[in-house]
Amino acid sequence: MNSFGIISIILLLPLQCWTKSSFLSKNFIDSINRKQSTWIAGRNFPEDTPIESLKYLAGTLGFHPDPNFEPPTKVRKLENVAIPDTFDARTEWPECKDIIGKIRNQGNCGSCWAFASAEIMTDSLCIKSNGTVKFEFSPEDLISCCAECGNCKGGYTGKALNYWVKTGVVSGGDYNSGEGCRPYSESTFLDNITPSCKQQCENSNYTIPYSDDKAFGTNYYHVKRNQKDIQAEIMLNGPVLAGYVVYTDFLNYKTGVYQHVSGVKNQNSSDMTFSLLVIGILCAWSSCKADDNTTFLPEPTTTDSQNPYGEEISPYNLTKEQLRRMCGSYHIFGEDSYTRNVDYVHHKVDKIPPTFDAREKWPYCESIGTIRNQGFCGSCWAVASAAVISDRMCIENKGKIAPHISSEDILRCCRGCCRSPNPCAGGDMRKAMVYWVQYGVVSGGEFRSHEGCKPYSKESYYDRPTSVHCLRNCTNKDYNVSYEKDQQHGRKAYTISKEVEQIQTEIVLNGPVIASLRIYEDFFTYVTGIVFTDLL
């Protein structure tokens, strides 16, 4: 088999060019469909979608910041209420069918709380007016102007309903709809950026002023959390707003009556909570269990990402040359200001344990277990370098300092690291480590994370660099530390031999190491396990 390319990794905790989540795999999807028949699972997200991106989409923080807060509860006498076997709000109120049945798209912003709140407002107004008023409330207005409600990192549905009653909400359709006073904006939909509050209509074709466009609720209330009360409320007044903890199998939901089949409800110790509308029941209520593991849903609200470059890019249609380009680790030989400053270390080898996991030895360093996503750029050399720097700094400071070092800063500013003017064409990880020592590197999270000084950019992720220049300033407008003050410097960069015992000793003593790995074509089907190949 011919050699295919070279990538950079961190040994024992592989930093892959992309990582695959088991709960998004074809095997997991197929197992769901084999185990039950009430709903159909299918692919909604690429298998390498980071779990953090999915957590952002499930942005419900709760009903209210105070967990003990309870809104007024509507108590209804149910003795004489006949509950039918099935019920659908779309057929009960046909004049509002197009409103109740509309599926809206939150994009990449964690705004399900705002969408569900806006939808319940829209449905309620249509039903109360017998279909004469079809006013589509604006999630954008809630996200941007209700400061106590939340933002693209999550929010509270109760606060949104209270804002509707007290302050009012304007109209606004989905992204690219051109509908209403404040339609959903591009930066919110694509880039997970919370918009600023602009108390004016942003749709130039909409003729009603912002203040005149506001619609108000009269009140909001809570119903008891039991099956019959919820059923009666839907039958008498229409859809209800609900929230629930998402199990990982739901991320593959396509259609049908959802019930938890397999998978866990939390990844990395924090639950994913989603807001939705319950518009009816798709099976006989008398035969459907209502417990903590069962939620009955209409069609799913899509949250598929739209490619900001208007073209279809996914791990499933890349050419061989694109795959080769992503394996961007190169040794740029020749003595220069970088390579002259690399020390050589040889360890005295003592007893080496039969197994070792850096995550267990240094449990306070969460960065060691974090898998970063380089996207479609040949930046594994920069991503792996930033990851090992983050790990080593955390270990050195015993978890008191745990920076997320910026791959973007290394990629854009270490010009001696790159093999061409385009940093996505590959680079030298050794020179990246020396650059950290000599010049320093700032903090920066993943693509769309909006964390740190210089998060991974859209241009880098999609391998579409609009500029190859190094910008020595923080690109995250919400980060309040200057570029110069945010820079972190290493004490020294060194290399060790390729002898197995030397590498093992280095990992046991000091933590993860960075290495280049020659890969073959079969590596692109790697999911988990131990790969046997050549270190460079």
From TrEMBL:
<keyword id="KW-0865">Zymogen</keyword>
<protein>
    <submittedName>
        <fullName>Peptidase C1 and/or Propeptide C1 domain containing protein</fullName>
    </submittedName>
</protein>
<dbReference type="InterPro" id="IPR012599">
    <property type="entry name" value="Propeptide_C1A"/>
</dbReference>
<feature type="domain" description="Peptidase C1A papain C-terminal">
    <location>
        <begin position="352"/>
        <end position="535"/>
    </location>
</feature>
<keyword id="KW-0645">Protease</keyword>
<dbReference type="Pfam" id="PF08127">
    <property type="entry name" value="Propeptide_C1"/>
</dbReference>
<dbReference type="InterPro" id="IPR038765">
    <property type="entry name" value="Papain-like_cys_pep_sf"/>
</dbReference>
<dbReference type="GO" id="GO:0006508">
    <property type="term" value="P:proteolysis"/>
</dbReference>
<comment type="similarity">
    <text>Belongs to the peptidase C1 family.</text>
</comment>
<keyword id="KW-1015">Disulfide bond</keyword>
<dbReference type="InterPro" id="IPR000668">
    <property type="entry name" value="Peptidase_C1A_C"/>
</dbReference>
<dbReference type="InterPro" id="IPR000169">
    <property type="entry name" value="Pept_cys_AS"/>
</dbReference>
<feature type="signal peptide">
    <location>
        <begin position="1"/>
        <end position="19"/>
    </location>
</feature>
<keyword id="KW-0732">Signal</keyword>
<dbReference type="InterPro" id="IPR013128">
    <property type="entry name" value="Peptidase_C1A"/>
</dbReference>
<keyword id="KW-0378">Hydrolase</keyword>
<feature type="domain" description="Peptidase C1A papain C-terminal">
    <location>
        <begin position="83"/>
        <end position="281"/>
    </location>
</feature>
<keyword id="KW-0788">Thiol protease</keyword>
<dbReference type="GO" id="GO:0004197">
    <property type="term" value="F:cysteine-type endopeptidase activity"/>
</dbReference>
<dbReference type="Pfam" id="PF00112">
    <property type="entry name" value="Peptidase_C1"/>
</dbReference>
